[in-house]
């Protein structure tokens, strides 16, 4: 069983987190974490410290990665997805990789 936990930034619909949770996958929205208006650096640090893979479509996280900012992993949405498709893609990632595989890694969805 995978140990990946997801942290969804403010650009990802809360319904994605709800769908993941209903499938037994740990997911936390930035709103639930009290981080809605936080900077991208604050998000990446929060996720890193708490061992969450960030789910995002925000290119700023790609920039932070390229600058060498450590992170627990980034699941990057390359285009808009329907909620169900988004959940399925994250489910596949969850079933395929472990947290140690995701550290400082970007998985393009």
Automatic annotation (TrEMBL):
<protein>
    <recommendedName>
        <fullName>DUF5615 domain-containing protein</fullName>
    </recommendedName>
</protein>
<feature type="domain" description="DUF5615">
    <location>
        <begin position="5"/>
        <end position="106"/>
    </location>
</feature>
<dbReference type="InterPro" id="IPR041049">
    <property type="entry name" value="DUF5615"/>
</dbReference>
<dbReference type="Pfam" id="PF18480">
    <property type="entry name" value="DUF5615"/>
</dbReference>
